[in-house]
Amino acid sequence: MIDTHVHVYPPDVIRDFEKISEREDYFSLLSHGKVHKWATVEDVIRQMDEDGIQQSWIFGFAFRDLGLCKHCNDYVIESIKKYPDRLKGLAVVPPLDPKAEEEVVRCAERGLIGVGELFPGGQGFDIDDVRQTWRLVAVTQEANMVLLFHTAEPVGHDYPGKGNVGPREAAQFCINHPEAKVIFAHFGGGLWLYELMPEMKRYLKNARYDIAALSWLYKSKILEAVNSAGIMGKFFYGSDFPILSFERYKEAINGLFEKNRDIKKLFVENVEKFLVSER
Asked: Could you tell me the pTM of the whole model?
């Protein structure tokens, strides 16, 4: 099984999070939230062994400060060197920083496969504004990297870090950049529904979605709806660890296993096909 949505923190970031919070408002908001948890790479490996996860995609916190992002990226780079058979890594950058592209290239050269999870609201950039995204897309395409964006449903209850980037903004990103290989976290805030519109299906050809935070956001029947819509092949398993682990997803997923064995593609085949697919 592959988990495509796992957060890790360098030990000194955990130790000094209060000081960092003083200059990083979004980090402060999330790290002081009642559901927040910390995890080092050793914590991730232990949980993977417990849950039967063979591979995890790990990434640090997407700060506004490029120096802090670089520090997280270095930790991820060293982690995948330590556990090359268990981990793949994504880089974090503030997309509007003049040196963001340089950092993406550095991380690609050191073996990272993507950029994310980026927080448009927390980092102060608009994913639907091509003037703010074209450089990031260009450098990730050149490096054959995937993108992972935080997205959220535009209705329902509010929570720390929800933000206001949902299906409309995500759709516009894909219209602006149909060539980008992009994953929208948390069901894309509902963007997957619009795969049923012929014109949007074309724009969303390279878009994928993860199911992170499923148990907090939706009833498990949402996976039946996705399957009925014929787009389960565009979904990945993502836990949002350390906030949630596989244990919280078992009930929702096991029921579908009994009805449709193709759901198992959620864990491996969908991800592998996405990584090797042509742009």
From this structure: 0.96
